[in-house]
Each structure stands twice: as structure tokens, then as C-alpha cells.
Amino acid sequence: MKRSGLPVFVQLDGRPVILVGSGPAAEAKRRLLERAGAVIVGEAEDARLAIVAGDDPEPVAVRLKARGILVNVADRPDLCDFTLPAIVERDPVTVAIGTGGASAGLAAALRQRLEAVLPASLGGLAEALKRSRAAIRQRWPDAGERRRAIGAALAGPLDPFRDPPNGAVERWLAEPDAESAGIVRLRLRSADPDDLTLREARLLAQADRITHRADVPPAILTRARADAERIACAAPPTNLPGLTVDLEMAG
User: Fold this and answer.
1) Which terminus of the chain has fewer CB atoms gathered within 10 Å of its CB, N or C?
2) CATH class for the domain made up of 16-117
3) Are strands 86-90 and 93-97 parallel, antiparallel or unpaired?
């Protein structure tokens, strides 16, 4: 089974990137690289990344790969070491959408939907949280408590899909409302992750660990944080630090 790639954001400002090709596809890639601040160079130059957009890309891709360069080939996912996502920007927030090369059209359609629902103020919210980083750390010195407090705020007064008023972050800090640590038990009504309530989804995203019965499906467990510990057990252990979400199926 082919595995999907690992999404990463690469800082290209001032770094060389090879661009080989001409025509509309190559010009589109050039604009993308220039916007990221990359220094665009030719095939003979030294670089870690290369983008190829042309009528006969295979020989070029083979030569570049032989030099240990990671290559993206326009419209040829079978030749790609990495793919370029569709992007929604709310500076400094960037949302990247990839399909592993399966369908650029699908990625574009998802981008258009997200453009419509993500408010223009999202970047301002990110900047306000950045400015308040020291105050947030002072209020919640423990990393787990801090993560839960921020998660609860972003599911409520700082909802990123709404347009929070000026000073919303400061008011939240004045009246914090974080999920408490301990064990939260959830009885799931459905094995379909799309049926999770907003509270259930938020708790899964905040939990330090997930304890669960054997019949809880993997599709539910994947909604938890990637670094959250998963423990299959008949009953959750006691006296665990941080937030534990215990899952069982109803019925």
C-alpha cells in the first residue's frame, strides 16, 4: 500500500531551487517559488530541491535524482519526490492541501471552499496569540495544561472560523477557561468519526493519552493528536498525569 507523504513547510527564503522548463506550467512554478523567496537557478547549479515542468521531463528528473536532489515534476506524480500543495494564505497562517498527486483538481476545489470559510482576520488572531505567548506560558506553565487551555479557547471565544473582535485574546487571558486534567470518559454512539460531537473531537485533539476498549475503531483513534499515547485496556489506569480520554462504544 502506498503511504501518503509527510507534510512539511520548507523555508526557501534566499535558498537556491532549480527550475527546469518553459511555458505556462513552468511560469506558475516560478511565481510560486518567487513568492516563497527562493533563488531560482538552472540545472547545473547546486540546490537541494528542483522543479521540472516540460514536455520530456524524465531524463531531467533522472539526472537530478542521481545528484541526490529532491524533484517535483509537473503533472507526473510518479516522478515526484515531493508534491506542491494547493495553498490558502492568511499571513502568517498557511493552509496546505495535498492529495499525494492523486488529483490537483480536488486540491483546488478544497482550497476554494476553505478560502470561503476562513476569515480574513485569521492572520490577526495568529499574531495576537504570538504576542501573548509569554503571558500564556506564565498563566499555564505546564505544557499539557497550556495546550488544553488554548484548545478550549479556539473551540470557543477564539474560534478561528469566526471573526473575533479586537482584544479577544487579552479578554480570554483575563478569564481563562481550560479543560481540567484527569480522566474524561466518552461513550461513542457511532464508529464513524464524522459523527463525533464538537466536544468529543476537541477532547481527542487535546488529550495526552487515549485509553480505549478493543472495539473502538482505528478511524476514531486517528482523530487524536499524533503524539498522544494510545492504550488498549479494559479500564483506564488511575493517577495518570495530564488529560486522559477513555473511549468505549455505546451499546
Assistant:
1) N
2) alpha beta
3) antiparallel
